[in-house]
Amino acid sequence: MAPVTLAAVAAHFGRDMDRGVSKVVGIIESAARDGVDLLVLPDACLGGYIGDFAAPDPDDPPPALDPDGPEIAAVIAAAGKMTVCVGYAESAPGGARYNAAVCVSGDGVLGTYRKVHQPAGEALTYLAGDAFGAFDTPVGRVGMLIDYDKTFPEAARALAVDGAHIIAALSAWPASITDRASRLPADRQSRLFDLYDCARAAENQVVLVSSNQTGVMGKLRFLGQAKVVGPGGDILATTRSKGGMAKAEIDVEAEIARARKVLNHLAELRPDTYRAKSVRG
Q: Residue 276 domain-assigned?
């Protein structure tokens, strides 16, 4: 494939759904003018995230959306030829919701995902997903993760084994709650966010496009740090702790082939050995 332009967004999104949809559409239109082929927006950009891990406000949950409803339809209509990933709360039976992501183009839905790994307290607001899978898009085979998922190597590995060459990691990732630093770049979670992004790309030799929320929601202060990471774990573009769009042009297939030319991590896996067993000294 020819080089493509990949972009990750760092921005604030709150509860106001009309404003959120309008902001998403505006960002898509701006990205289209910049020639972006894949745009990854943050987790919960349609309706906002919870405001507290320990005790989410039961009276202020993210609004649960119908995947076939007008909000996702507006994103599809705006996407045109672009591939766009957005995060939202997907409605489930009984008034429940999933922390979910959808990948679309102007032709419709290309892939969906429900967040599997839940940090402390999130289960009070969201149901957990139970599967990882990659899907084909105009920019290549893509898989999606949602914030805390990137902490677990198995999640990104499952997508890579399923053929994903691009991982879209959508986040609403906050600064540390228990040991908050005075400056975001010095925060422990800021370091971990970047570390996980680079590690997941390098260990799977894939391209990772990482978005995140900014600003404040309840007791949570989000980090930003949207970025595009190459298959060697190198950061190709980043917003750092500010809002904006990290954008990089890359020949995904060529760069992955180059990264895997000598050491091909997926081809050299030994899954039969990855289990604990007693060892006699």
A: no
**pTM recorded for the entire structure:** 0.96
Give the 3-state secondary structure of residue 254.
Answer: helix
Q: What is the CATH number of the domain that holds 123?
A: 3.60.110.10
What contacts 7, CB < 8 A, 6 or more positions away? 31, 34, 36, 38, 39, 40, 209, 228, 245, 246, 247, 248
Mean of pLDDT values over 205-231: 96
Q: Which residues contact 117 (CB under 8 A, 6 or more apart)?
A: 128, 148, 149, 151, 152, 155
Residue of 110, 111, 69 lying closest to 89 (CA atoms):
69
pLDDT at residue 195 greater than cutoff 90: yes
> 132 pLDDT exceeds 70?
yes
CA distance 128 to 149: 11
Reference 142, options 236, 262, 1; nearest CA is 1
pLDDT tens for 31-49 read 999 999 999 999 999 999 9
State the Cα–Cα distance between residues 138 and 161, nearest whole angstrom: 20
CA distance 154 to 258: 23
The two structure tokens encoding residue 276: 């604990």
Strand 64-65 relative to strand 38-40, pairing: unpaired
Whether residue 281 has pLDDT greater than 60: no
Amino acid symbol at 107: D
Give the structural domain span for 68: 4-268
The number of domains in the chain is 1
- Is the model's pLDDT at 1 over the cut of 80? no
